[in-house]
Amino acid sequence: MADGMQDLLARDIETLRADVLKAGVLNAKALQDSAETHVAHLHDALRESSELADASFQVVSAVIGFAKLLYSQSAIAESERARQSALAAIDRLAAVMGRCEWRQAEAS
What we know:
- This protein is mainly α.
- It has five helices and no strands.
- The two termini are about 15 Å apart.
């Protein structure tokens, strides 16, 4: 079960990364929902920690900031810096995820 859940969470991270990579003005508003949904999946499966909470907050904040820049049609260089910042936050969250305990361990 843990392997299957880990695969699902890894797919959440990869889907979020892909959403940020392919984002454009037309789907900028959907990015916030995507970030919140995928991060919520992690929190459903992983035991809460300050490290997880901080990394999750950074992802959602970075993705929202990037989406706002896309939607406002900011300069390309500025929005690309924000995209890279969001991707770096996602990478940090993926690393934190690997150190977290599963919620199922709490019940056992």
